[in-house]
Design a protein that fits this description.
By secondary structure, this protein is of the alpha+beta class. Helix content is 40%, strand content 39%. The chain contains five helices and seven strands; from the N terminus they run αααββαβββββα. Strands 1, 2, 3, 4, 5, 6 and 7 form a seven-stranded mixed sheet that branches. The longest helix has 28 residues, at 27-54. The relative contact order is 0.14.
């Protein structure tokens, strides 16, 4: 019982320490802030799409962390170097985000995850083909900027999602 005052002081300090770091936002302000943050990561994904189309290895190298790992829709595991090579050598005609109502975004101060659907037009020996990929990218704040640390894509059929 002689430690009870100490524990009360610690509990009070912890309680006030926690609540002094919380920003109180209205639900509308919080939703607006979350949307701006989601838009930031969608912009990073758009940069990735443009780099694929333009075969821009420098931009891809900037977006991917040094220890980046990707699981392709074909089930291959690529490190940063292999992923950049795969994307630069690809026959992408266009890459676009579609069906935004199915986007999933989660974040903390240091890590964020964005899942979205991409429509990818590729050139094949028998003509153009359209692929639909559900893709998740995990970002981490490294050296004061957000970098992709992992990615995973899954081929999907367009009909079940209604597009």
């Amino acid at each position: 019982m002689k430690h009870l005052p100490f524990f009360r002081k610690m509990a009070r300090a912890l309680f006030f320490g926690l609540f002094s770091s919380i920003s109180f936002l209205t639900s509308a302000q919080g939703a607006d802030a979350n949307m701006r943050l989601k838009d930031f990561f969608i912009n990073l994904d758009d940069q990735h799409n443009r780099a694929m189309e333009q075969k821009d290895s420098a931009t891809l190298g900037y977006l991917f962390a040094d220890r980046y790992i990707n699981c392709t829709p074909n089930g291959e595991i690529n490190d940063k170097t292999a992923e950049i090579k795969t994307l630069v050598l690809g026959t992408w005609k266009s890459v676009e985000r579609i069906a935004s109502e199915y986007d999933i975004f989660a974040f903390s101060d240091e890590v964020a995850s964005l899942t979205l659907t991409k429509k990818i037009r590729i050139e094949t020996p028998i003509g153009e083909k359209i692929l639909y990929v559900r893709r998740t990218t995990v970002y981490k704040k490294i050296d004061k900027r957000w970098q992709a640390i992992s990615g995973q894509g899954t081929m999907i059929l367009p009909k079940p999602l209604g597009f």
